[in-house]
Amino acid sequence: MAETGSTTPPRPLGLLAELTHRCPLGCPYCSNPLALDTRDGELAAATWARVFREASVLGVLQVHLSGGEPGARRDLVEIAASAHAAGLYTNLITSGVGLTARRLTELVQAGLDHVQVSIQDSAPSSADHIAGYEGAFTRKHELASEVVRLGLPLTVNAVIHRANIDRVGDMVDLALALGASRVEIAHVQYYGWALKNRAALIPTREQVDRAVTLVDELRARHHGRIVIDAVVPDYYARYPKPCVGGWGRRSFNVTPSGKVLPCHAAESIPGLVFWSVRQHTLAEIWQESPAFNAFRGTAWMKEPCASCPRRDQDFGGCRCQAFALTGDAAATDPVCHLSPNRAQVTALTAVQDDAPYFYRRM
Ligand code: SF4
Ligand code: FES
Question: Is 2 helix (H, G, I), strand (E, B) or coil?
Answer without folding.
Answer: coil
